[in-house]
Design a protein that fits this description.
Blueprint lengths: L1 H4 L15 H4 L3 H8 L4 E4 L20 E4 L1 H15 L5 E5 L8 H7 L5 E4 L4 H7 L11 H17 L2 E3 L3 E5 L8 E5 L8 E5 L1 H12 L3 E5 L12 H12 L3 E4 L2 H9 L8 E2 L3 H8 L5 H8 L1
Parallel strand pairs: 1-2, 3-4, 3-9, 4-5, 9-10, 10-11
Antiparallel strand pairs: 6-7, 6-8
């Protein structure tokens, strides 16, 4: 038993708990076994707070529990954006699917002044304007969600800004031929890979005048240099903004760290999925379990 044999003031790191079937199933017996190894439980893993696993949820039924300093900061920064954001409040959204972001948009609609749309999900919003999007993929639900958000923007009074120009490629490859066109000039077999320079400037101007910014999702296929310019431009605009800037973890955080801009942001979240669910207004089991313990 490594824990019982460990010298005082030492640290014992367990194997990846997901290898145990009782972890993700939140089996009470496994949670009790984990609890038997300790006197106090501290959860500082915000990135797993949206999962009700034995090591994040079940264990709190057996031990005095608390959140760590990182978790505390995550909840403070994201809670500030949810409860009382300084206005204007702008949200920049990228990523592949509208359906991944729709609940957050609906939940924040009454607090946000401007949504800036990029990434693969921009295709659905362009299509709602009657524009052709070439070979860009649009999920069936995505078009419906985009129409609903467009309608919501008029009813709730927030600005919804979509790309006026885009970078398109003739195939989804790193070395594909590419060009920048206005958003009304996309045709087969081309597909959208990034926002264009004019859109990046417009988004930058909007972000510069914002007092609260939340950014989740790259503006294009950031991993490939030819299609990283939009994400880079938005990242630098967020970094220059004087207001509070919150980066929503995941690939967005990866982009910020790759560019070396993390110190210029107010907060870079460690949890992509967790931060998104928190801003959707959903309960985070790893947090509520400690609050109830």
């Amino acid at each position: 038993d490594l824990v019982s044999l460990a010298p005082q003031n030492s640290v014992v790191m367990l194997e990846n708990l997901r290898f145990h079937p009782g972890e993700e199933n939140n089996e009470p017996e496994f949670a009790e076994e984990l609890a038997a190894l300790a006197d106090v439980y501290v959860n500082d893993a915000f990135g797993t707070a949206h999962r009700a696993h034995a090591s994040t949820f079940g264990i709190t039924r057996h031990l005095d529990s608390a959140v760590g300093l990182l978790m505390e900061r995550e909840l403070h920064m994201l809670g500030k954006a949810l409860e009382n954001p300084a206005r204007p409040f702008s949200v920049a959204l990228g990523g592949a699917k509208v359906s991944d972001k729709i609940r957050m948009i609906e939940h924040l609609a009454g607090k946000v002044d401007t949504f800036l749309i990029g990434g693969g999900m921009a295709s659905a919003f362009l299509a709602t304007q009657g524009l052709a999007v070439g070979a860009s993929r649009i999920e069936d639900a995505g078009l419906k969600h985009a129409r609903n958000v467009t309608r919501m923007s008029k009813e709730r009074g927030f600005n919804l800004i979509i790309p006026s120009d885009v970078v398109i490629a003739d195939r989804f490859k790193r070395d594909a031929s590419s060009k920048t066109v206005i958003s009304s000039n996309i045709c087969e077999p081309w597909l959208i890979m990034d926002i264009g320079d004019e859109t990046a400037r417009r988004y930058g101007n909007e972000l510069q005048r914002s007092n609260t910014i939340f950014w989740n999702g790259p503006m294009g296929v950031f991993e490939w240099e030819s299609f990283s310019k939009g994400t880079t431009s938005v990242a630098r605009s967020v970094a220059r903004a004087a207001g509070t800037s919150i980066i929503g973890g995941g690939s967005t955080a990866d982009a910020v760290y790759t560019l070396g801009l993390e110190k210029d942001m107010s907060h870079v979240s460690t949890g992509g999925g967790a931060s998104l669910e928190y801003l959707e207004g959903r309960d985070l089991p790893g947090v509520s379990a400690i609050q109830d313990a």
